[in-house]
Amino acid sequence: MTRAVAWAHPRFGNLLATAGYDMKVIVWKEERGQWVMAYMDTNHQASVNAVEFAPQEQGLRLACASSDGTVSVLTYMPDGQWHRNVLQGHPGGAQTVNWAPVSYRDGVPSSSVRLATGGCDNNVKVWRCEAEVWTEENPRFPYCHSDWVRAVAWRPDHSSVLATGSWDNTVVIWAQEMEGHAWRQLAKLSVDGKVEGLSWHGYSIGAIEQYQASMRAYDGHFEEVAKVQESGYTEVPGKLSAPAMSAGADGYGQAPPAASAPAAEISEQQQAVLDAFGM
Q1: Nearest in space to 212 (alpha carbons), one of 169, 272, 241
Q2: What Gene Ontology molecular function terms does this protein carry (predicted)?
């Protein structure tokens, strides 16, 4: 049974990774309208729960989280071979992986390669790769969850903002002044169910919970603005008229003066909720 799928960036062709309870990670390639196996890794000793390709600027890399407690990173090398690194990540099982976005300075991408992981030890870890050697970053990520960490998500436009979601019914937003500094907690959100996934949309964060889904938007602080369930979209009264957040000098955002939002803006916020869940 397949548990996870992920697409590679189109620059690498039509590549799809799959993984599941059979403990295998398979990379598939489309050739002349047919899908063929390009690579298979069989080294995990338990189910593989999550797979994700790195940003295309960092080459063809695939991170895989497994219930055997490890995270493997498969890297396609110039000689046409796949190189496998193993991160001894989470006793009891690794559940989730997410690559940090690539930051640019003067139009040049940073060489920093970072990966966040979470697992059954209730912990979050951030890893760094230098010269194909992986190490856990110091200072270590703070301990804050009391149950499995099932989701980690970097804000797409900021490699120093990270959200973590847990079966303890909380989502925590973290910020780091710069790489190598300690992480600090920006907000801790209580939700109705166990968090199974997270998705950023601009300054808003969507939390996918067991049996339901909700969206929480950053407008100077985090608050719930809507729910998306099988029955459809439900607005939280009085929330979608709140001011949207603008970027501040520190890059984390600041709230503008309060004002009533026009109908068009409210409609855009509603669509942002749906976009976060692919609807």
Answers
A1: 169
A2: structural molecule activity
Q: Which stretch of DSSP H or E encloses residue 261?
A: none
Residue 221 CA to residue 237 CA, distance in Å, equals: 17
Host domain of residue 24? 2-276
Q: How far apart are CA 73 and CA 12, in angstroms?
A: 17
Q: Is 175 helix (H, G, I), strand (E, B) or coil?
A: strand
Highest mean pLDDT among 75-79, 128-132, 225-229: 75-79
Which two structure tokens, joined as six digits, stand for 223?
């608050």
Distance CA 27, CA 87 (A): 20
d(CA 65, CA 10): 23
> Do residues 191 and 171 lie in contact, with contact meaning Cβ atoms separated by under 8 Å?
yes
List 127's β-bridge partners, or say none. 115, 136
Q: How many CA atoms lie within 13 A of 202 on its CB side?
A: 19
Name the DSSP class of 11. Answer: G
What local confidence, expressed as pLDDT, does residue 252 receive?
A: 47
**Count of the separate structural domains present in the chain:** 1
Dihedral (Cα; 38, 43, 46, 49), 10-degree rounding: -40
Parallel, antiparallel, or unpaired for β 170-176 and 183-190?
A: antiparallel
Q: pLDDT band for 115, please (50, 70, 90 cuts).
A: very high
Residue 241: per-residue pLDDT: 38
Question: φ, ψ for residue 265 (rounded to 5)?
Answer: -70, -40
Which bin fits 160, alpha (ψ -120 to 50), beta or left (φ > 0)? alpha
CATH of the domain at 193: 2.130.10.10
pTM over 0.85: no
User: Residue 276 pLDDT more than 70?
Assistant: no
